[in-house]
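Researcher: Sequence recovery benchmark, item below. Answer with residues only.
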């Protein structure tokens, strides 16, 4: 998923990014190699650290691109079509970045969930409240759905956010989405 996110960020016009468009895919691949090695050697602690570092780097790229795009809006350097295209790329990237975050933080991450470690959940999915689904566990798609809902409704719609970390992340995602959808789209419509 990180590679997909990095490729999405590479579609942004050069003037709307801090780094060159090829930088994020190259950084993701550079981080992906040690991650694969850690997975093969079953170094669970390193897997988690590398995944969190990689997603943090990609999220910084996302946030910096949103900030630069905002600056470009008010200086009228970008055309309306560039603004729309960039806003769409950033909006979709926001979904993917935060779906990875949610997947990585909930109950200690995917490794801890697979090893059935007893940890308090960061999110309470509706399926977790049903008696007939006591063995149900969220998959990546469930976190993707949560991120999509948070991006479109500016809040998690059917899933309760329980931990402070999860609350901070959902607030951050909703804020980024709000800036992208409301400010950028409204300004782009005004320019055209």
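Model:
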């Amino acid at each position: 998923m990180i590679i997909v996110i990095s490729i999405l960020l590479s579609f942004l016009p050069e003037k709307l990014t801090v780094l060159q468009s090829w930088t994020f895919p190259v950084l993701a691949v550079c981080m992906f190699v040690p991650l694969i090695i850690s997975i093969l050697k079953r170094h669970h602690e390193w897997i988690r650290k590398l995944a969190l570092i990689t997603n943090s780097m990609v999220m910084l790229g996302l946030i910096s691109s949103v900030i630069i795009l905002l600056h470009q809006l008010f200086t009228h350097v970008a055309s309306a079509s560039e603004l729309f295209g960039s806003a769409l790329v950033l909006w979709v990237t926001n979904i993917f970045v935060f779906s990875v975050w949610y997947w990585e933080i909930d109950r200690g991450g995917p490794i801890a969930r697979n090893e059935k470690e007893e940890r308090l959940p960061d999110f309470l999915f509706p399926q977790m409240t049903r008696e007939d689904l006591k063995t149900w566990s969220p998959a990546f798609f469930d976190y993707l759905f949560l991120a999509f809902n948070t991006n479109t409704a500016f809040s998690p719609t059917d899933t309760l956010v329980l931990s402070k970390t999860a609350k901070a992340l959902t607030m951050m995602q909703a804020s980024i989405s709000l800036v992208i959808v409301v400010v950028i789209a409204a300004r782009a419509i005004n320019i055209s």
